């Protein structure tokens, strides 16, 4: 084997190692960033609704939205209250009082406050739950425990990361061949 062939193999090997390490690092950072952004969206949604003044109005209206013709100027902010792409529900006690379209049919199992990962009908869901007992001074129409949940399916994240891996694999092969030339 000639010296030129050996050098080509060594350079291609080093390039392959560098591409693999860089790909792994980029994949991990990207996955972490996507998951953090997802958690921030869920947190924002739940904490926005958990505001006692907003929650009082939502429970009084019996929904998150009203048609524009039936609300006054002071209640218009409820139209912009939620990210409508994030399914959300409110439970009072164990009864679902309000749920947006697309919220998965989780049983009213005992959720603890915080983030949970749940598999439902073949889909992985990330759920943010807040449990609280309304203060007696607030007129929230209830004194039972209120549960607010927002959920996002993680399947789109998995698809995005799979697409990333496939593209990175293709670029890596091209980089290895280019380094060998």
Describe this structure in words.
By secondary structure, the protein is of the alpha+beta class. It is 46% helix and 19% strand. A five-stranded antiparallel beta sheet has the order 2-1-5-4-3. β3 and β4 form a beta hairpin. α1 runs antiparallel to α3. The radius of gyration is 25 Å and the shape is rod-shaped. The relative contact order is 0.18.
Structural topology:
Blueprint: H1 3-50, H2 52-61, E1 88-92, E2 95-99, E3 114-120, E4 123-132, E5 146-153, H3 155-180
Antiparallel strand pairs: 1-2, 1-5, 3-4, 4-5
Helix pairs in contact: 1-3
Strand content: 15-25%
Alpha carbon gap, first and last residue: 17 Å
Query: What's the story with the biggest beta sheet?
Result: 5 strands, antiparallel
Specify Rg, calculated over alpha carbons: 25 Å
**Form type:** rod-shaped
Lateral arrangement of strands in the main beta sheet? 2-1-5-4-3
Helix content: 40-55%
Helical stretch tally: 3
Structural class: alpha+beta
Count of beta strands: 5
Low-confidence stretches: 67-75
- Mean of pLDDT: 78
């Amino acid at each position: 084997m000639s010296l030129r062939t050996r050098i080509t193999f060594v350079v291609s090997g080093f390039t392959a190692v560098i591409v693999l390490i860089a790909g792994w690092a980029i994949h991990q950072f990207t996955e972490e960033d996507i998951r953090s952004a997802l958690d921030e969206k869920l947190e924002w949604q739940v904490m926005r609704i958990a505001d006692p003044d907003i929650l009082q109005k939502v429970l009084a209206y019996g929904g998150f939205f009203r048609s524009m013709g039936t609300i006054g100027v002071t209640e218009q902010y409820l139209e912009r209250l939620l990210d409508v792409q994030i399914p959300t529900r409110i439970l009072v006690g164990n009864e679902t009082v309000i749920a947006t379209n697309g919220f998965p049919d989780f049983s009213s199992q005992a959720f603890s406050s915080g983030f949970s990962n749940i598999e439902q009908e073949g889909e992985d869901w990330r759920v943010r739950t807040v449990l609280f007992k309304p203060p007696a001074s607030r007129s929230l129409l209830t004194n039972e425990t209120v549960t607010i949940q927002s959920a996002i399916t993680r399947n789109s994240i998995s698809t995005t990361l799979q697409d990333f891996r496939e593209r990175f694999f293709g670029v890596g092969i091209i980089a290895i061949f280019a380094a060998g030339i």
